[in-house]
Specification:
Helices cover about 45% and strands about 20% of the residues. Strands 3-2-1-4-5-7-6 form a seven-stranded mixed beta sheet, with helices on both faces. The protein contains eleven helices and seven strands. It is α/β, with parallel strands linked by helices and about 270 residues long. It has helices at about 5, 15-40, 55-65, 75-85, 125-135, 155-165, 175, 185-195, 215-225, 225-235, 240-255, and strands spanning about 45-50, 70-75, 95, 110-115, 135-145, 200-210, 260-270.
């Protein structure tokens, strides 16, 4: 199994590829959902953790009231640099931060938001305890996590294809991390272990993943996530083979031209 730093390394060319291929294909629909939920929660101070290349940040900056302050943070400087280079409609504060030790004072935010980041926490109870610490009384934590790999069709196709190239040691990054935190009981238990006392509201949200061709999901997942590092750790010369196999697998199910697949994620809201 790859070392944890490989699983969590969004560096090099990954941020640009992530933004180009994955953001419009899988992240924007859920960013719209998250931003819509925040519009219904009164807040003056919002913290985003695991902001990535800023798809949620940009929506928050354009939809929340101008007097709402937004701090967008991420552990990976490459992702944060790319996010800040794209910019937002109004100023936000970009901050490199480790979710395990947030560099903010107690009770300093009304809402903490995290899109598809909690799966990468090395200690989720500790991460949730940090969120609780920086939330003011009556504050809200809004986040999402992918559901099972089999319910997310393009990611499942790419994982299946990678296994045909490396049958003796299949790369399982997508199943292990992005889609490995889908048990809602486990999520509730981790929140409780982190100190949250109120019940979490968890809803399954289905969306569509759309791309211009079958090659887009292949390139996005193989070049725009740590799956690339996992493949290259086995044999760097086979990255192109995995992309080709993934393209063929997606095309076999959805066609070669514009493709449309199912996505499913859990969206969680919990109050302090």
């Amino acid at each position: 199994m790859p070392a944890p730093d490989i699983d969590r390394a969004f560096a090099g060319s990954i941020p640009r590829t992530y933004e180009t291929y994955l953001v419009p294909m899988i992240f924007e629909p859920y960013a719209v959902d998250i931003a819509g939920r925040l519009r219904t929660i009164p807040a003056q101070r919002v913290l985003e953790i695991a902001a990535g290349t800023g798809v949620v940040t940009r929506l928050l900056a354009s939809t929340l009231a101008p007097d709402v302050s937004i701090v967008a943070s991420d552990l990976n400087p490459g992702m944060l640099d790319h996010a800040s280079s794209i910019g937002t409609e109004r100023p936000v504060l970009w901050r490199q931060a480790d979710a395990m030790a947030l560099p903010f004072e107690d009770a300093s935010f009304d809402v903490v938001v995290c899109q598809f980041g909690v799966m990468f926490f090395p200690d989720r109870a500790r991460g949730y305890a940090e969120v609780l610490r920086v939330l003011a009384p009556g504050g809200a934590f809004v986040f999402n996590a992918w559901d099972r790999l089999d319910d997310n069709e393009f990611a499942a196709c790419v994982t299946e294809a990678a296994a045909t190239v490396f049958p003796d040691d299949p790369p399982r990054f997508l199943a292990r991390l992005p889609h490995g935190y889908c048990d809602t009981k486990r999520i509730r238990d981790d929140l409780k272990a982190g100190g949250f006392g109120k019940p979490a509201d968890i809803v399954a949200v289905e969306a569509r993943s759309r791309a211009d061709s079958a090659r887009v999901p292949a390139l996005g997942f193989c070049h725009g996530t740590p799956l690339r590092s996992e493949i290259e750790a086995r044999d760097p010369s086979r990255l192109g083979d995995v992309v080709d196999a993934a393209t063929e697998t997606v095309a076999r199910r959805f066609g070669n031209d514009a493709v449309d697949g199912r996505m499913l994620a859990n969206v969680i809201t919990i109050r302090t």
